[in-house]
Amino acid sequence: MNILYNNSEQRFRAGIRIVVFLVISILFIRPSSLISISWVASLSISLGCLLAAFLVVKGMDKRPISSIGLEVSKVWWIEFGLGVFIAFLAQTIIFSIEYGSSWLEITGYGWQRAGIEMWGWSAFTYFMTMLSVGFYEELLFRGYPIKNLAEGFTFGKITSQQASWIAVILTSVLFGLAHAGNPNASAISTFNIILAGFMLAVPFLLTGRLAMSIGIHFSWNWVMGGIYGLPVSGLDGRRSVLQTNETGPDIWTGGKFGPEAGLLGILGMIFILICILLYARKQNPSGKLELDESFKNDYKRVSD
C-alpha cells in the first residue's frame, strides 16, 4: 500500500491533503500580520483560508467546494440565519439567568464611553471581526479537517459514519487546545471549548453544510461580547451595547473567561444542540436523525 497516494481514488491520502491545506493556509494568512487594523486583518485571514481551501479541494481532493460545507444556495443562507438566531437565544438565556440571579449589573451603555458615532464604528468593526472569526475557525476546525479525517479513518471495520465521529472528537480536542492559551483560560474552560467544538460539528454532520456552524459560532461570540458585554473566551469587549460587571459564582458564570468556562455556557450549548437536532429531524422526510449522505458513504460512492 502506498502510504502517500491512494491509487484507487487517484489522489493523495487524507493526511497529506490536510498538511498541504494547513501549510497553504498559513502562507495565505501571514500577510494579515502586517495589517494593523484588527477587523481588516480578520477579514484577510478569512479570505486566505477560503482561497487555500478552494485550491486544495479542487486540486488535491478532486471535488467541489460544497463538499466541505460551503455553497451559494438559499438553504445555506437560511441555515446560517437560523444558526445566528439560535445562538442569540442561547446567549439571551445566559444573560437573563445571570441578571435575574443578580450575578451581574448593567453599569452603562457602549455609546456613553465615546459618543454614538465613534461607538457605532467600533461596534461595526467588532461585528466584522466576530463574523470573520466564525467563518475561518469553522473552515479550519470543522469544514476541511472533519471531511478529510473521516475519509482517512475509514478503513478496515471502521465505517464512514464511525470515522466521522472520530474526526469530530479529534478536531474538537484540537479546538479546545487552541484556546487553552487565551487569557484566564483553565482546565474547565478548555474542556468546555472542546464541548463547544463538538456542538458546532453536529450541524455539519447532519446537513453536510457549514452554514449553521458558522452562524452559531459568529452569533455566540458577537452577542456575548458585542451586545451583553460578557468576556469572550477570556477576552474582554469594550464595544458592547450593554456595559456589564459580573459578580456571580465563577462555577456558573465562568469568571473572567466568560460563560464558556461556566455551567451557564454548558446550558447554552445544550440548548443550541437541542435546536440543531430538532431542525435536522424535521428536515429529514423519514423523521429520523441521520448523518448527511456525504458522511455515510465513502469517497467513491459520494463522487459517483
Topology:
Elements: E1 5-6, E2 11-12, H1 14-29, H2 38-61, H3 74-100, E3 104-109, H4 111-114, H5 116-153, H6 160-178, H7 187-207, H8 211-227, E4 242-246, H9 250-253, H10 263-283, H11 293-296, H12 299-303
Antiparallel strand pairs: 1-2, 3-4
How would you characterize this protein structure?
This protein is 66% helix and 5% strand. It is mostly helical. The chain has one domain. The strands form two sheets. The protein has a two-stranded antiparallel ribbon. The chain starts with a strand and ends with a helix.
Total beta strand runs:
4
Protein structure class: mainly alpha
The radius of gyration is 20 Å
Strand order of the largest sheet: 1-2
Quickly count the domains.
1
Strand content: under 5%
Query: How many alpha or pi helices?
Result: 12
Described by strand count, sense and barrel closure, the largest sheet is: 2 strands, antiparallel
Uncertain regions spanning at least 5 consecutive residues: none
Shape: globular
